[in-house]
Write a structure and sequence with these properties.
The protein is mainly alpha-helical. It has 2 domains: about 60 residues, Orthogonal Bundle (Multidrug-efflux Transporter Regulator, Chain: A, Domain 2); about 60 residues, no CATH class. Helices cover about 65% and strands about 10% of the residues. The chain has a 3-stranded antiparallel sheet. A hairpin with a 2-residue loop joins strand 2 and strand 3. Helix 2 crosses helix 3 and helix 6 crosses helix 7. It is globular and about 55 Å long. The chain starts with a helix and ends with a helix. About 20% of the residues are buried.
Length: about 130
């Protein structure tokens, strides 16, 4: 569990550090302002994603996760921060069973497939455009 403790923060840990109520942090996670993952009923915030969020705040640009450009490098980095895996690695692990088949992990696998396939779709659309 030691590695997991160093990679993920609990909502109360983040709330304490930010001097906020835990419910506000849960709302940030739900609004996808702050990347999070679920382990059963527990919500965890990947430490790297949290640090990137703080850097954005310090630069004056607290942007939510991007969902409008599925092949953007930022979105791939957000996925990597949230899961600890590249989209391709996540898909392989989920398909092989090394990543448990939970509703949250299924949602992440679908998201990873979109990230993986977006460049192919764009290339195909560009080839068929007049």
């Amino acid at each position: 569990m030691g590695d997991l403790d160093s990679r993920y923060l609990t909502v109360p840990q983040v709330a304490t550090e930010l001097q906020m109520d835990a419910s506000a942090v849960y709302k940030m996670c739900k609004a996808r302002q702050l990347p999070s993952v679920r382990f059963g009923k527990s919500v965890r915030i990947p430490r790297l994603a949290y640090e990137r969020y703080l850097q954005r705040l310090e630069r004056g640009r607290p942007k939510p996760l991007k969902h409008d450009s599925p092949d953007s490098q930022d979105q791939r980095e957000d996925f990597r921060d949230a899961t600890g895996h590249d989209p391709e690695t996540w898909i392989d692990g989920w398909r092989s069973g090394s990543i448990p088949d939970t509703p949250e992990n299924t949602r992440l696998a679908i998201h990873a497939l979109g990230l993986r396939d977006a460049p192919r779709r764009r290339a195909k659309e560009a080839a068929t455009s007049p």
